[in-house]
Amino acid sequence: MRRGSLVLIYGKPGVGKTLLASTICYSNALDGMKCYYISFYEDREKLYEFMKGFNIDLSKLDGRVFKYVKLPLVTKEGLKDFIDSVFKDIVVFKPDIVVIVF
Description:
By secondary structure, the chain is an alpha/beta fold. The chain is built from three helices and four strands, in the order βαβαβαβ. The protein has a four-stranded parallel sheet, sandwiched between helices. Strand 2, helix 2 and strand 3 form a beta-alpha-beta unit.
């Protein structure tokens, strides 16, 4: 991945979106690049537990070079507020890579 990349991963359930996105973030985070991971589905605890089965421990990187955010259930108006808060958070966290998993 190149620094400053934005990756949008979309597909049917079970095709490997989560595994691919998490592996991209983990590999780059181990190299010192910050990754901002946005999920529209997976809970943090479920994701972290799932990835441990692949010897990927995201909890060790959490907050330093890996940041997880889940899209909450929101109204149309609330979505704008969520997006605004994500953009502000990205400015502060300064990720090298942003991954969005649908």
